[in-house]
């Protein structure tokens, strides 16, 4: 299978993360490149595990939950669940905000 080229895709975010975790404001490009290779490898591994032997083209949240259900990935799974909860919470808040805006505009 042909490897896709993801070089530079996460550079900006990785530099910020590395700085946030105590690295230099402008980390060495070689260091960022190695971190990016590791990140892409991790994402590919999780996606391949989640896809299972049938190699699905679309992954569901349940597929990712199964892939991260190993004891070694418990923190990652907990973080994913937290982010999913926050995403739903934000959706609910936006819906309430839009609903209240509609009600206010009808009052005028």
UniProtKB/TrEMBL annotation:
Alphabetized SUPFAM superfamilies for the sequence: Histone-fold (SSF47113)
Cellular component GO terms, alphabetical: transcription factor TFIID complex
Subcellular location(s) per record: Nucleus
Pfam families membership: TFIID-18kDa
Alphabetical UniProt keywords: Nucleus, Transcription, Transcription regulation
Matches recorded under InterPro entries: Histone-fold, TFIID_TAF13
Highest taxon above the source species: Eukaryota
Family, per entry: Belongs to the TAF13 family.
Protein name per its UniProtKB record: Transcription initiation factor TFIID subunit 13
Organism name: Pisolithus tinctorius Marx 270
């Amino acid at each position: 299978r042909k490897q896709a080229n993801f070089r530079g895709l996460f550079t900006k975010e990785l530099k910020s993360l590395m700085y946030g975790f105590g690295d230099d404001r402008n980390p060495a490009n070689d260091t960022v490149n190695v971190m990016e290779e590791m990140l892409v490898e991790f994402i590919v591994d999780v996606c391949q595990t989640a896809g299972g032997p049938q190699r699905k083209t679309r992954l569901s949240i349940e597929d990712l939950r199964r892939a991260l259900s190993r004891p070694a990935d418990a923190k990652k799974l907990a973080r994913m669940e937290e982010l999913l909860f926050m995403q739903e919470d934000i959706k609910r808040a936006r819906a309430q905000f839009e609903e209240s805006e509609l009600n206010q505009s009808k009052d005028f």
